[in-house]
Each structure stands twice: as C-alpha cells, then as structure tokens.
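Title: Prediction job returns without error message
Component: structure pipeline
Severity: low
Priority: P3
Assignee: unassigned

Description:
Job completed but the reporter wants confirmation the result is attached to the right record. Sequence as submitted:
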Amino acid sequence: MDIEWCFYENMFNTEECDKIIDDSKNIEFFQGEVGVNRYEHSSTQKVDNNIRRSKIKFIQENNKNFAWMFEKLWHYAHHANRNFRFDINNLEFVQIAEYDQEYKGCYVTHADVFWFQPEKHYSRKLSCTLQLSDPSEYSGGDFLLEHLDGVYPTPSEKKQMRGRGTGIFFPSFINHSVKEVTRGRRYSITAWFEGPKWR
C-alpha cells in the first residue's frame, strides 16, 4: 500500500449527481442503523442516535437504471487501487445517505470492516464516498479521515474533497466520520469494494 487515501475531483459531473438523486427517489429511505449487519435488517443492528443520525437507502448492482453508475465506480476503483493493491472483485450495492440539519445528521468515528462474520465470503477492502450535494447547500457535514498523522488532508485538499462529484477512496479499515450538518442537507454515496477475506 503506497498511500492511505486518494480522491478524484469531478469523478461524477453535476448532471450525473442529479440523475443519481432523481432516479433513486422511488427507493425508500430508512433510518441509518449500526451493528454487524448494518446493510441488512436483522436483530444484530439497531438505531443509535449517539453514533449515527442519517437516513439511508441501497441501490443493488442488478438495478439496470444504475448500471452506468456501477461501471463508473468500478473504473475509478481500479484506478485508485493501483495505490492500495487490494484484491477486490465484488460490489453488491451502494448506499445513498442523507444528513439533514433537522435531525443534526452525523456519523461518529467508525471503520467499515466487519472482522467477525463467518457467514460472509468477502471482506470490505476499499471504501469510496462520493459527494452528491453542492457544498453551498449545507454547512458542517465534513467527511473526515481520522488518525492519519502526517498524511491527513490539508485545508486545501479538504475544500476540494467537499466538491460535488468528488470521490474519496481509502482502505475500509481506516477510521472516518461525518461531522454534524448545521445547515441544509448533504447527500452522499458510499461503496464498499470487497475481496477475499482479510488474513
């Protein structure tokens, strides 16, 4: 692994961001949950507003309306992965998240890897978060990579990373957070590229 993170400005253009939001309107939001299976409804997950305040929905890879989006995400994932060299071959779905000032949307420090899932054949290796909202539409809501002394994004990079359509790639085991939205509403996509279990 050569770097801890990377990002692509204008990975998706304005029209593509609008299309994702518009075409997903018929998919119902539900309250973001935490737990081992937080991407499925099960007894191992729960709503905990001290950890996560957001609304989420999922787009499956077999949704033909979004085939173009998955293709583009994979294109950039393969490019970014030249830096990480992870074994990735699976992307079942992506998550659209809404963080709204109305409920002080945020997500405290966490990692995306589930280390203890014997029933799963894959592990999350490379995470991507894509900014769907224009930064002028909200305040707060910063996406932060944490505990990266010496390689943390500079103020200039942080501003670039807030840009609409910017995609940020990082190893799924790196801690990250979304700070509280204090004005407006922020939409984002998260994709988890998986591969053979970590060992």
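Comment from assignee: result matches the submitted record. Residues 71 and 197 are 23 Å apart (CA to CA).
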